[in-house]
Amino acid sequence: MDLSLKTETFGVDDQSWLGSEHGTQATEPVTLDTSAFTQATHYPDGYFKSGLPLGKITATGKYGLYNGAATDGTETLVGFLFAAVKAPSVNTVDVAGAMLVHGKVRTSRLPVAVDAAGQADVAGSIRFI
Questions:
Q1: Who has the most CB within 10 Å: 22, 32, 108, 120?
Q2: Bridge partners of 63?
Q3: How does DSSP classify residue 68?
Q4: Residue 37: which residues within 8 A CB-CB, separation 6 or more?
Q5: Global pTM?
Q6: SS3 115
Q7: pLDDT digits (tens, 9 = 90+) for 20-60
């Protein structure tokens, strides 16, 4: 048993990309494939940023960063990471998170831009403002 003192720092999650509270009580659980993200861009401070656009990787069923030019399943936008998630120290460990699949999103506040094709993928469930 380890009874030593440990210090952990928590940052403030920037959810200014949310356009309303609608849909925030009905998020879906997801497993993020850490290797599908770039540390310097998507979790430079040790946390996956909330608002990251997600696509489902066909081969694994896990989620990675939406990429309209990919061919692994992530070319289809399915939702957005709802809240920041602590990233592991190595990219071979996957982490759990929550995905917003219904609601309103402020495009200018997203940490990663979503193209028109991605917006069309979720047009029936997410409204972009």
A1: 32
A2: 32, 56
A3: T
A4: 43, 48, 52, 64, 65, 87, 91
A5: 0.87
A6: coil
A7: 888 888 899 999 999 998 888 888 888 999 999 999 999 99
